[in-house]
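Bumping my old thread because nobody answered last time. Still need a sequence for this structure:
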């Protein structure tokens, strides 16, 4: 019973915040996350539900960045360690290290038709274009899922990730070990 009341309270607070955002004209474009030594921006339209860290069941003979599969709210999701995948396997965090208390799983939107969740080290919040002072377009050598790089007032680089393009990349879909 307490869980049901807690869920209702949460839904009520969320509805209030959404209404306040609409009335004040706040426009958040991205979910800002930290993974490894980098910061990333996931478009809100491509990101799905956010889950607390859940230990996935390991799957043999897969890429080092594929942590396994997890049951998230009754659905089976492949779990990708984002910091390792995004750096091509050169993450500062070892794949074998247990994620910290702030780690979360960010599911891809169900409209992308890929049951996958990205393990990130920390959620930072929502960001809009107004949070950044400069942007650069991806260069010719950039991976297909990389969007613009944005820079905030402190000069910190934020990499935009096109989750829709990512969900169609053969490198991302090919979890089998070579």
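Sorry it took so long. Here it is:
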């Amino acid at each position: 019973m307490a869980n049901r009341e807690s869920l209702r309270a949460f839904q009520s607070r969320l509805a209030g915040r959404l209404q306040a955002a609409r009335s004040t004209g706040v426009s958040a474009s991205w979910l800002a996350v930290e993974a490894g030594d980098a910061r990333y921006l996931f478009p809100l339209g491509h990101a799905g539900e956010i889950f607390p860290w859940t230990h996935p069941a390991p799957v043999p003979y897969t890429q080092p960045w594929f942590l396994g599969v997890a049951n998230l709210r009754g659905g089976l999701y492949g779990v990708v360690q984002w910091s390792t995948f995004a750096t091509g396997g050169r993450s500062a965090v070892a794949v074998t290290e247990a994620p910290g208390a702030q780690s979360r799983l960010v599911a891809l939107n169900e409209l992308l038709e890929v049951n996958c969740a990205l393990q990130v080290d920390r959620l930072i919040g929502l960001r809009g274009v107004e949070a950044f002072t400069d942007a650069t377009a991806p260069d010719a050598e950039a991976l297909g899922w990389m969007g613009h790089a944005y820079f905030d007032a402190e000069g910190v680089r934020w990499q935009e990730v096109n989750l829709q393009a990512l969900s169609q990349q053969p490198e991302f879909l090919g979890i089998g070990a070579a």
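The chain has a mean pLDDT of 87. Let me know if any region looks off to you.
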